[in-house]
Amino acid sequence: MAKSDFLEPQDWTIPVPIAFGPGRLAEIGDRCHSIGIKRPLVVTDRGSHSLPFIGQLQACLAQSGLESGLFRDISPNPRDDEIGAGCAAFVAGDHDGIIAIGGGSAMDGGKAICLTVKSGVDLWAFEYERPVPNVVPEFPALITIPTTAGTGAETESTAMVTHVVKGMKFCIWHPKCKPALALLDPNLTLGLPPNLTAWTGADAMTHAIESYLVPGFHPLCDGAALEGLSLVAKSLPLSVREPNNLEARSGMLVGSCLAGISFLKGLGLVHAISHMVGAEYDTQHGLTNAIILPVVLRFNLPGLDAKVIRMAEAMGIEDRTVEGFIRAVESMLDGIEIPRSLGEIGVPADCAGRIAQKAIQDSAAATNPRRASVAEIRDLVTTAILQAR
What we know:
Helix content is 49%, strand content 11%. It is of the alpha/beta class. It folds into 2 domains: 3-188, Rossmann fold (3-Layer(aba) Sandwich); 194-387, Up-down Bundle (Dehydroquinate synthase-like, alpha domain).
């Protein structure tokens, strides 16, 4: 995209209606009316509820004559007990739609509430690897508004939720619970602190890399992964250095969205491990992914030279060997100040075996390009804890 494209409103229809462009939040009232939402519940995470965009969103809704409620009790790694509380807030406020706004946790929380509040179906019946529940009545209308450029969760029904009793994260979804609108306003990402910009941006990069490496022929997802990877490689370092650079922020938001679309194809061991580390230690998801990424790349990439060349081309990396690509990724992570080990963010070495036993059950492990045993995953976790790069 040219610079002018990033700064002008754009409307896309694949895979769901997407409204992109600076200032598009102002349209939220009209968008709700067109979708049929009259009394939305705004769902966000604990870290976002006091940020300016929540007040801006509710003010825009009020200007259109829409009264909204706010549910803000979503953790960085959403928990199943929080989803029940969100459903109770939806019912108590007589709401008819959900606006999930914030990072990935807010959108996961909003989608999980949407799945369960009217369906009468237990949350875990929607677990990805189970048969799809037959749901009556329909799900509430859902609008997603990302305020970080990393999760890519805004166009799908999938959500990651922690099962508190099991201490594991699981993917839940339903094919009929897709967002009615994804609103991408890069103005909402301006001024995001450099560390959160780096962590969420590295998450987008990980999505694009892992999904592209998933075996199988899926040219739509592969194309989205490569274009997303190209935009992230160009925009992430600049977004970290210049938090108010609107063009870079726009590039990151589009790149993140594309990377999120691409992982319909699947993900890999980075996410399988990261999900379980996050479930146990409540670590920030993108940061956890970023630390684990080089370790898993060294395990996965040998023999995938053709794909490495395509990814290196997309990222503008001159050395297109496996080792050259990994070094370039590590250099980017160093440049945006990603810690070099999970140990630095509080993950203890003695958890490796337990995390491996859980990670191999994650749906993302099944689509990793190289099959791994529990012992091999344990070794990867140990390396990531002690010295990832």
